[in-house]
Automatic annotation (TrEMBL):
PROSITE patterns: CRAL_TRIO. SUPFAM superfamilies: CRAL/TRIO domain, CRAL/TRIO N-terminal domain. GO terms for molecular function: phosphatidylinositol transfer activity. This is SEC14 cytosolic factor family protein / phosphoglyceride transfer family protein isoform 1. It comes from Galdieria sulphuraria (Red alga). Pfam families: CRAL_TRIO (PF00650), CRAL_TRIO_N (PF03765). Residues 95-262 form the CRAL-TRIO domain.
Length: 270
């Protein structure tokens, strides 16, 4: 198996970066899952075969606590979803509707943290469209883009949510929240390394209480909330930020030194 299971040596890392080292039980489960997955890939595309590498199967095993049959069912469902959602086609030729979604800086991949985890910035105040399938396509495009930027065994990402300007106008419906959660947990399991929520208002906490029971317990432990009036002057935030981020990569609005502005044309062409 490829070197995608690097051992975490820094006990001060916030969240997760790499896969954990394999014990004997997991090795046996992987062998069993590999055999079962190969049987359903007989008529699969080369992209499906490439996607189902050992690192991928291990993520699905971890998401189902090494229960092989449950992991297999989730892999099967994901393969079917990727085909129906046309994920590869989405990445090869971005639809104009997705580019319209990304014309504002409401959701994009921007830089990495000090451990190499891509940072997905989410800024609800820049919501520029009504709810539709294109919003989910934009989310999937963003996740795929982040994954394709991962290197050196890193398999986790950072979700950075800035709630400044959050209101009922840009609050997604419960239905959209559930669909988003399904995409993240079922079709991209074990990809979240850390979620950072800045200045979440009372309105968000109301919705969070509703969806929290549907969020995996391990995921909940990766979510950090910060209430700060000025990120550059908040000691608590800056201590945390310096543990997680290379300040040259972190955007200036959050105490970093990265002052590059989001350019949608450049973003979709890179």
């Amino acid at each position: 198996m490829a070197e995608s299971t690097s051992i975490v040596k820094d006990n001060h890392i916030k969240g997760e970066v790499w896969a954990k080292p394999l014990d004997e039980e997991t090795k046996q489960c992987l062998q069993s899952l590999r055999s079962k997955v190969n049987s359903i890939l007989v008529d699969g595309s080369s992209k499906d075969v490439e996607w189902c590498d050992d690192a991928c199967l291990l993520r699905y095993l971890r998401a189902r606590n090494n229960q092989v049959d449950k992991a297999l069912e989730l892999v099967r469902r994901t393969l079917e979803w990727r085909k129906n959602f046309e994920v590869e086609e989405l990445m090869n030729k971005v639809p104009p509707q997705v580019k319209e979604e990304g014309s504002s800086q409401k959701l994009y991949v921007g830089g990495k943290d000090k451990y190499g985890r891509p940072i997905i910035y989410m800024k609800p105040k820049y919501q520029n469209t009504k709810e539709s399938i294109h919003q989910l396509q934009h989310l999937v495009y963003t996740l795929e883009k982040a994954i394709r930027r991962m290197q050196n065994g890193v398999e986790k990402l950072i979700l950075f949510i800035d709630f400044e300007g959050y209101s009922m106008r840009n609050t997604p419906s419960i239905k959209m929240m559930r669909e988003t959660l399904t995409v993240l947990q079922d079709y991209y399991p074990e990809r979240l390394g850390l979620a950072i929520c800045l200045n979440a208002p009372t309105l968000f906490y109301t919705f969070y209480k509703i969806i929290k029971p549907f969020i995996d317990k391990n995921t909940v432990q990766k979510i950090y909330f910060f209430k700060v009036n000025n990120t550059k002057k908040s000691k608590e935030w800056m201590e945390f930020a310096q543990q997680v981020f290379d300040l040259d990569e972190l955007e200036v609005d959050y105490g970093g030194r990265n002052d590059k502005e989001y350019d949608p044309e450049e973003y979709f062409s890179s």
